[in-house]
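Lecithin retinol acyltransferase: structure tokens wanted.
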Amino acid sequence: TMKNPVPQAASLLLEKLLLLVHVRPLSPGSGGEPPPAPGYYDTSCFKRGDLLEVPRTLFIHFGIYLGENRVAHLMPDILPALTGDRRQIQQVVTNKRLILGVITKIASIRVDTVEDFAYGGSILVNHMDRLFEDQVLGSEEAARRAEKLVGATAYSLLWNNCEHFVTYCRYGAPVSFQTDKFCETVNMIIRDQRSVLASVLVGLASIVCLGLAPSTTLPTIFIPFFLWMAG
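Answer:
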């Protein structure tokens, strides 16, 4: 007998919801692994204006290389709305700051070292250029666009994430292929007659399996309905 695809799709949706915004669920009591030490990556092969991709299990994080081991990238973060202390804001974004940023739709386009940006992952350089062909802007133009946008900004999981940021900088138009794939997964669930149950199970699973507070799971439960109404 074939397995029911809806629970599997709901599980995949939960994972993508968390990973698309770069949440790294940690086991209870775990502090996570520190980022690699400076010099872990050979930055001599990077050029100013390059688009850097860091593939993870279910998502890709994006940034624009600015030179001198600096990467501009967009991260959900509540802290810029609470303080103007640059030293606090520049610290590595914790899961709590990130999740609150997602809920309140606040983000920061920040500049970090390559080590903090990639966090031990492999880096692809200008891998998306093949998809945009003649739309690639000059490297200096891409870097300047990124530098002008550094600071607090609005955030949307679907409409203004890290991929939108880098495609605007390097190709002139904000696009997110990850968003397209995410929406396809959601549409697959809501087309099924058991979609209501599936969407609720996604929220409940996040509480049981990941220990998230109910308030942080509300977007998970209601996103399928919002997309259905908008579509």
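The first helix runs from residue 5 to 20. The radius of gyration is 18 Å.

Cheers.
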